[in-house]
Amino acid sequence: MSNKNGRLHLWAFLQGIGFFPGGWRDEGATPRAVFDRGYYERLGRLVEEARFDAIVFGDQLQGRDAAGRTPSRLAIPTLDPFTLLSVMAGATSRVGLVSTVSTTYNEPAEVAAKFAALNFVSQGRAGWNIVTTAHPNSPWNFGETELLEKSQRYARAKAFVDAAEVFWKDAGGKPAGDRAAAMANDWFNFSGTLDFPTSPQYRPVLVQAGQSPDGRDFAAQTAEAIFCPAPTIDAGRSYRDDIHERARRFGRKPEEILIMPGLAFVLGSTEEEAQAKHKHVLDLADDLLCVEYLSESIGYDLTQHPVNAPFPIEEIVARCEFPAEDVRRMLTPAVEANQSIADYCRDYARKPRGHAIFVGTPDQLAQRMETWIDAGACDGFTLQPGFMPQELELFCKEVAPLLQQRGLLRNEYQGPTLRDHLGLGGQA
Ligand SMILES: Cc1cc2nc3c(=O)[nH]c(=O)nc-3n(C[C@H](O)[C@H](O)[C@H](O)COP(=O)(O)O)c2cc1C
Q1: 3-state SS, residue 78
Q2: CA nearest 258: which of 417, 15, 423, 57?
Q3: How far, in Å, from the CA of 131 to the mean position of ligand 1?
Q4: pLDDT exceeds 50 at position 3
């Protein structure tokens, strides 16, 4: 699906102070700014001036101390996304505002009302990144001890979105198809309506990030845009083809779903400068920071072992908080290659969460984006700046104009709503 003006979609995924775990230690970084309202207002204006579709914030429902594994040293605090986006709504007038909200730990009536409110105050710029919450420490914050099993989480997610849809339809006086089934089922049993008029763009744009078969099916059924990790063009194309195929099976048109892989970037005025900057940011993460970073990701405190020791794989698998088979699959190559804990953790901190990382000049980045779009590998990118706010500022100043010159990125917004920016048509 293409924009009237530009065919590349750009989202800014703004996590804490940037993509790399050591980035906050750069002399130009301003880690304390993540607690400052003005920081978010400036960022909102910046990406709006560069004509991005949307800003996205993640959520974090597990304990803030990560069971002792100190995000303060990782400096990626995740403040409540709804609050941040409400502040940004006041500082901007066009850019979309996508908030992550879990369907495992909320209730449909409340979430439907919150998104209606964000749509009202932003005049139709809300989006919902629907997540099912994978971190096994999360239930402890909700009076529970066990995370629901994944297929159950996705079953609840589907029922949750169907129920929220009833509230939004009611608010607009639209007939809600299977109202009775959505209101009373294995997951929910409620009555009542939102006593609101229809909000601008009727409901938030629905966004998802499913990787597992259950996650992909859920995304293919419900999402209008999807995040995914895609380290190569082939990975992007294969994910996009798979989602399109699943969408057809659910009776949807593939072009109704935009595929937006993550893309981290480090820019320099020459390739050498960008490489040097990349090395600098990686060097900012010392061995212990890298070990803490992986510890948080697998839910097992590796700092209790010497950094040069081999992985105590059986002990990790027996005691980690994430599903043992996932952690074993992740660590087995390191064990087979005889990597020490420090070696593997350094590698892991270089390429967080499997997303593509670009290192080079603004011109090369614009070219790369065009190549991916032309190859059908994606509909746009969920940008994750290597450093914040410097790399985002560089992108907006240097790369966005190049994308506009290439006719890839809009020069002006064509309408007021996020749905307009995404070319998703009028009201769903
Ligand atoms: C770009 C991106 C952002 C994500 N943000 C969040 C988030 O903020 N909160 C969350 O619980 N999960 C988040 N996830 C994780 C996904 O929702 C999902 O749990 C993960 O991709 C695994 O999918 P699966 O459970 O279908 O395998 C994100 C995933 C991606 C790719």
Answers
A1: coil
A2: 423
A3: 6
A4: no
Of the candidates 330, 328, 358, which has an alpha carbon nearest to the alpha carbon of residue 344?
Answer: 330
Q: Is the pLDDT of residue 208 over 90?
A: yes
Residue 317, C-beta contacts closer than 8 angstroms, at least 6 positions apart: 324, 327, 328
Rounded to whole angstroms, how far apart are CA atoms 80 and 380?
Answer: 26
* Beta carbons of 73 and 102 less than 8 angstroms apart: no
Where does ligand 1 bind, in terms of residues with CB under 6 Å?
A: 13, 58-59, 100, 131-134, 150, 209-212, 215, 227-229, 262, 382
The phi-psi region of residue 235 (left if phi > 0; otherwise alpha if psi is between -120 and 50; otherwise beta) is alpha
Cis peptide before 389 (omega within 30 of 0): yes
Please report the atom of ligand 1 found closest to the CA of residue 150.
25
* Angle (CA) 54 102 150, round 5°: 120
**In residues, how long is the chain?**
428
pLDDT confidence tier of residue 30, bands split at 50, 70 and 90 = confident
* Residue of 59, 60, 82, 100 best suited for mutating to test ligand 1, as the one with most atoms within 8 Å of CB: 100
Task: Point out which residues pair with 205 in neighbouring strands.
Answer: 127
Which segments of 164-257 are extended strands (E)?
A: 205-208, 225-228
- Distance from the alpha carbon of residue 265 to the mean position of ligand 1, in angstroms: 20
Nearest to 391 by CA among 412, 360, 420, 414: 360
- The answer to whether 149 touches 175, Cβ cutoff 8 Å, is no
Mean pLDDT of all residues belonging to the chain: 89
Q: Two tokens at 288?
A: 């212990």
Give the three-state DSSP class for 419. helix
pTM value > 0.90: yes
Is 149 exposed, middle or buried (CB count within 10 Å of its CB: 0-12, 13-18, 19+)? exposed
74-81 CB contacts, 8 Å cutoff, 24+ apart: 74/21, 74/289, 74/292, 74/293, 74/296, 75/16, 75/17, 75/23, 75/24, 75/31, 75/34, 76/15, 76/16, 76/17, 76/21, 77/16, 77/34, 77/35, 78/15, 78/16, 79/34, 79/35, 81/57
For 124-154, write each residue's pLDDT tens digit. Answer: 999 999 999 988 888 888 999 888 999 999 9
